[in-house]
Design goal:
Structural class: mainly alpha
Largest sheet: none
Number of helices: 21
Number of strands: 0
Order of helices and strands: HHHHHHHHHHHHHHHHHHHHH
Shape: elongated
Helix content: 55-70%
């Protein structure tokens, strides 16, 4: 590729000029679960797009360099809707949307961004969104440029298939890191449009984001997650589920020194867990039972009902609570959990 560019370009041109095989005719409203990323990875047009992107990146383009004419002609051709097979190329271009936007914003806004609009073709929108969500990153100027397309995608969660979870996570991180031009109401409406499994992914992402804040987790809770919870998270308790409950229990634990406050915010969304072992493990491992015994007892009382198997670390958690504040041993919740352990032979 560094010495035979003319041969590379000639081969790419010949492949793109081949007659369309019409091998993948996905129509509007088609229920077939075509994974456009997989399809692009296994199609010659996808191979061409990938080769040309690799060649372009080897030139180490910088912001606002503009696309070189030899590359731009191919990418522009792939953005032609006349040939359905060029869709495979657009999937790869969408996977590098941020790079294209940074290097040549005008070209990207004219040729590629229109495909992200669900008001046009839902098939084309699904293809490029799946390409972008293959490995998404936050880039604020891009979020501003395709705000309408981005927020409306929340209403097409089911259309994204297995990529819906990536979208829910991406949407959550965007909401956690405020972007100029977006309001809390924008994100509240978008997240409120997600189906239950999408909302469960939002809760999981919140927990992961807070857990990944390390030594800054208390500040991250107060400055990012708590405002998200108060201004963006849906208010209807009818949306509560066991999956959401587990993620929110882990979220409260990940808050560290803000554990009691976090638990107070999410408590109404918590419910007995079918598999509480991991939550108990994280609670015991965190040392919060000794640091905040009342809050720890409250969490245990909510998530433990009468599960067939008592979590192995429940005894250690209760011992730590009792050692920190011995009077809690007389608390009805503590006594219920102790009896639960006895009945389950733990």
């Amino acid at each position: 590729m560094d010495r035979h560019e003319s041969i590379l370009f000639n081969l790419c041109q010949r492949i793109l000029e081949l007659p369309s095989e019409q091998s993948e005719n996905v129509s509007e409203g088609d229920d077939a679960r075509t994974d456009f990323v997989t399809a692009a990875l296994n199609h010659p047009v996808g191979d061409v797009a990938q080769a040309l992107l690799n060649y372009w990146f080897r030139r180490q383009p910088s912001d606002n360099d503009l696309l070189p004419s030899d590359i731009a002609s191919f990418f522009t051709l792939m953005c032609s809707a006349k040939n359905e097979e060029f869709r495979h190329g657009r999937v790869f271009l969408a996977s590098r949307l941020i790079a294209l936007f940074r290097v040549d914003r005008i070209w990207t806004e004219k040729n590629l961004l229109p495909y992200f609009d669900w008001a046009g073709s839902s098939v084309e929108a699904r293809a490029v969104w799946e390409g972008f969500l293959w490995s998404p990153r936050l880039y604020r100027p891009l979020l501003v440029a395709f705000k309408v397309q981005f927020l409306s995608t929340a209403h097409h969660y089911a259309d994204l298939g297995s990529h819906g979870r990536q979208f829910a996570a991406f949407l959550t991180y965007a909401a956690l890191d405020p972007v100029e031009g977006y309001s809390s109401a924008d994100f509240q409406n978008a997240i409120g449009a997600l189906p239950p499994d999408g909302l469960q992914e939002v809760a999981r992402t919140l927990s992961q984001a807070l857990g990944g804040a390390g030594d800054q987790r208390e500040d991250y809770w107060k400055n990012r997650v708590q405002p998200f919870w108060q201004q963006i998270w849906p208010k209807s308790r009818d949306l509560a589920s066991k999956g959401i409950s587990e993620s929110l229990a882990l979220l409260s634990i990940a808050a560290g020194a803000e554990f009691p406050a976090a638990l107070t915010f999410v408590a109404d969304w918590l419910q007995p867990s079918e598999h509480p072992h991991y939550v108990l493990h994280r609670l015991h491992e965190s040392g919060l039972c000794s640091q905040f015994p009342e809050a720890a007892l409250r969490l245990l009382d909510i998530i433990l009902a009468d599960q067939p198997w008592a979590p192995g670390e429940l005894r250690q958690c209760l011992d730590a609570i009792c050692a920190a504040k011995s009077h809690l041993k007389a608390d009805p919740r503590f006594q219920r959990l102790t009896e639960y352990l006895r009945r389950r032979g733990a």
